[in-house]
Amino acid sequence: MDLARGNYYSVHFKLDEQQVWTAEVQVDELVFANLVVETSGDFTTEGSSIIIKDSGYVDLSLLLPYTTNITWYKDEKPIKGQNDITLRVTESGSFTVRAAPEECSNYLQYLGTAVVVRKL
User: Fold this and answer.
1) Is residue 20 part of a domain?
2) Does 51 map to a domain?
3) Based on C-alpha coordinates, what's the Rg of the chain?
4) Domain that holds residue 91
5) pTM
């Protein structure tokens, strides 16, 4: 992928008979969809909650292009060592994630709504 896309812009104006140019800023052409999590596994749903029983589980997987700088959270706290695209959940909690596309690793996005999991 050619990441040299985009254009540089500055503003030129006259100030008290002086020509002034602002600093150039790059405006790129990359646009990303919202961060989305797909669910799979051995679970049922009840309202907006995911229900797991006994040895059940739910896999929460990020969809492309969010593949870098991944941090999963349980109950608003980062889950240590969980930085993969998929998180396997086997216990109750409120789960969310923050990630970025590889092309723009500083473009961190958060999942809009936490995934609520209840273990019965």
Assistant:
1) no
2) yes
3) 21
4) 32-119
5) 0.76
